[in-house]
Amino acid sequence: MLNRRNFLALGGLVAGGAVLSPPLLALRAGAADLGARRTGAASTGPFQVRMPVPQTLRPVRSSAAGDAYQIDIRPADVEILPGVTTPALTYNGSFVGPTIRAKTGRPVTVTFRNWLDMPANVHLHGGHTPASSDGHPMDVIEPGQSRVYEYPNAQRGATLWYHDHSHHMEAEHVYRGLHGFYLIDDDAEKGLRLPSGAFDVPILIRNAQIDETGALVFGNPVERTVLTANGKAQPYFPVFARKYRLRLLNGSTEGSFTLGLDGVQFTQISSDGGLLPEPVPRTQLTLSAGERTDVVVDFSRHPVGTRLVLSDATAGPIVRFDVVGQATDLSRLPDELRPLPALGTATVEREVTLSFDMSGSMPVGLVNGQPYDPNRNDFQIKRGSTEIWRVVNGDTAWGFPHNFHLHQTSFRVLERDGGAPTLDDAGLKDTLPLAAGSVVRLQATFNDYVGRYVYHCHFLEHSSLGMMGQMEIVP
């Protein structure tokens, strides 16, 4: 379990894949092999199984009013390490839940039924939703009950995801498998002819610790040495010699991945909230827990038989792409993508400081010096207003990294540590990393809905310990 001693070890956790001590570094190249040796599985190394693409869910009903879906929250046995059975918490029985493909302007309802023996709920991360459907930490689905969530999709096309957000349990529930993709397609982007269909591939990247029985261990995040892509430990994925759109999500509960593709150049086309104004060539990018980015990789630049490995700079290989054949490619990568919305004029400035109180037997998460209290509104915000928030990681003494996630709307990063935003800060964001002592200024407009929403550290172990604030958006 995560106790004070283990928690203090997190002070050394930086932008790698949560694996820093020398004994753990020695294991990084053989995470799948490690699991096989512990469990007696047949696998003797990485890249033994194919990476699955999460199933796209079909509506149970469709009409002029929108699409309706149904998802069960239930335990299931899954296979993360080859040949090893692992108990998990799932959406519809799969370790990465089914993908919902929505459309801008077309509403969706999802009925979630809770078959667990404990309360759960669902937050659409990056969604602009009514407060009643945001998955507020205190709005839970009791065991045996169901709840209908309404998603208007009145926002730009983007790669979103849904996950549990029940307070004090959000980290463990997400760690044990309550996560899935929610993709919004936007007709305004059709003319761009970006890779689509089978060549548009969502990939949820995360880490795990699996014991000798095959069970997930919810303990010290530093010991999560098994790296997975779409629920499989270090899989391979066959691709044709053509362009692919890869939708990358850091679905870990804590930590960051610094990703590279064997030094090969790829092209970033989006961030959390949708397309960037223009493509950005990259050879490496960093995703903190909860962040997303879409990249285009042109595998036609490599001969058939080429193998390219997507790796974290610290923790090692995650997934290998095998170029297996030729294919017609009618997609393109245009010079311009989509302009960002105007910033607007800010009328309010606020400060948000994330930190821990380390004086007790267990750390207490704080926002502006106070732990989360669902009965307290920390900010009151007028709907339609534009604000600048100065977000600070105040844990300089301990060196703890954090990150910041804002519900209900996206924001733009104006400044990082007194200078320009980084490439990883570009575009419409809803989540961003904060090293110890780091300061970020961001600007957000709260156009959509009224009600209570939260903002918090998206290292979910931190928010579960109280590092969360609440805002009320009023007419």
From TrEMBL:
Q: Which top EC class is given?
A: oxidoreductase
Q: Does the keyword Metal-binding apply?
A: yes
Output the InterPro entries linked to this UniProt entry. Answer: Cu-oxidase-like_N (IPR011707), Cu-oxidase_2nd (IPR001117), Cu-oxidase_C (IPR011706), Cu-oxidase_fam (IPR045087), Cu_oxidase_Cu_BS (IPR002355), Cupredoxin (IPR008972), TAT_signal (IPR006311)
EC number of this enzyme: 1.16.3.4
Q: Which residues form the Plastocyanin-like domain?
A: 75-188, 242-301, 357-473
- Reading the lineage from the top rank, the first entry is Bacteria
Record's keyword annotation contains Metal-binding: yes
Keyword terms of this UniProt record = Capsid protein, Metal-binding, Oxidoreductase, Virion
* Reactions it catalyzes: 4 Cu(+) + O2 + 4 H(+) = 4 Cu(2+) + 2 H2O
Q: Which family does it belong to?
A: Belongs to the multicopper oxidase family.
Q: What is this protein called?
A: Multicopper oxidase CueO
Underlying gene = cotA_1
